[in-house]
Amino acid sequence: MVIKMESKDEKCKLIDRWKAFDKNLLPVDDLDLSILCALRENARISNLELAKKLKVSEATIRRRIRMLEEKGIIKGYSALINCYAIENSIKAFMYLKVDKRYIDKIANELIGENRLITLYRILGDYDLLCECLFLSIHELQEFEDKKLKRNEILSTVTHVVSKSYKSCEWVGI
User: What is the reported pLDDT for 9?
Assistant: First the structure.
């Protein structure tokens, strides 16, 4: 069964993302992908509405969603908030070169920072990549001065985003 989900003038990004994969390698089938697409578009859609949209029974939708949750594919439900609509944010990417002995320590300390959106351990010239939102350049500089200027952090490079061509739908920036 191949189900094509179209959302408001745009194909489902999940189906597009995995269409080139051998479906046997994925832990989901076309119906699961269609459910995931519909839930990403509107996590508040009722099982009955979703069943009608996908032309399957409500029991099938309930069972599939429960299975997707149990497998950890659906990790939870949340509202997508456009931070830029609330605050005039400055988005910055910060690359940190850290003394290898302290990478986990630094990462664990940074995780609690409320201006940090994501934190990744990366390969290459730097060890950590921070994606942050700040209210001003002054706040960004203060973060660098207070949190990143320490012996365990050998060097940093900060890039401030001036324009977004494809933004993160989770933060709207």
Answer: 37
Q: Three-state SS for 127? A: coil
CA atoms within 13 A on the CB side of 167: 16
Q: Tell me the domains of the chain and their CATH numbers.
A: 6-70 (1.10.10.10), 83-160 (3.30.70.920)
More confident position, 83 or 170: 83
Q: How far apart are CA 64 and CA 38, in angstroms?
A: 13
Q: What does the angle CA 136 – CA 140 – CA 144 come to, to the nearest 5 degrees?
A: 165
Q: Where are the beta strands (DSSP E) in 39-102?
A: 90-98
Task: Report the pLDDT value the prediction gives residue 105, as an integer from 0 to 100.
Answer: 97
Q: Strand order in 128-134's β-sheet?
A: 116-121, 128-134, 90-98, 153-160
Evaluate if residue 8 carries a pLDDT over 60: no
Residue with tokens 């300390």: 109
In this prediction, residue 126 has a pLDDT band, given cuts at 50, 70 and 90, of: very high
What pTM does this model have? 0.70
Residue length of the chain: 173
> Cα torsion for 17, 20, 24, 28, to the nearest 10°?
20
